[in-house]
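Something for you to look into today, if you have time. Could you write out one complete protein record for me, on any chain you like? The space below this message is yours for that.
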Amino acid sequence: MTNRYLSIYLKDHLAMAKGGVDFMRRVAESNSNNPLGDELHQMSEELEEERDTLSDLLDRLEVEPSQLKMAGAWLAEKAGRFKFNGEFTRYSPLSRVLELEFLMAAVQARKGLWKLILDARKLYPVLADVPARRLEVQADGQLLRLETMHQRAVRQMLKTGQQQEQEERPSDRP
């Protein structure tokens, strides 16, 4: 029997991973016209692998995924599309910045998950061959990549905002 807190924790992470894959795919698609799209698409494939590993982990521990949490994650991802980003009908540079910040937080949480699994191996030998260390290192790499993307997105947002501000200023010419 698996520790009840560990079960809840794993169910939460599985639901977040499901929502995270959908979210990352959507962000990648929103950025398909720039280099971020390719990088995020590759990361979404990595996240899919992590989600599958996590699902297998639950099976090993005989923990049933929570359909309610999975549905909640799906709904949260859909609801997250409706945000005030300074634009009503199109993708905004602010959207990109906020989405990358969310992805960085999610990767940090997944890194914590894999560290926890490394500790849990002591109590649950069935987890001995889960590639937690590799996935933790992968999360570190993802975080670095996302931070670089975020820096570029912030510069672009500030540049775009400044250009719009200059265009909106009344002309000093007679």
Notes: The chain has a mean pLDDT of 86. The CA atoms of residues 98 and 150 lie 9 Å apart. The first helix runs from residue 4 to 30. The chain has one domain: 4-167.
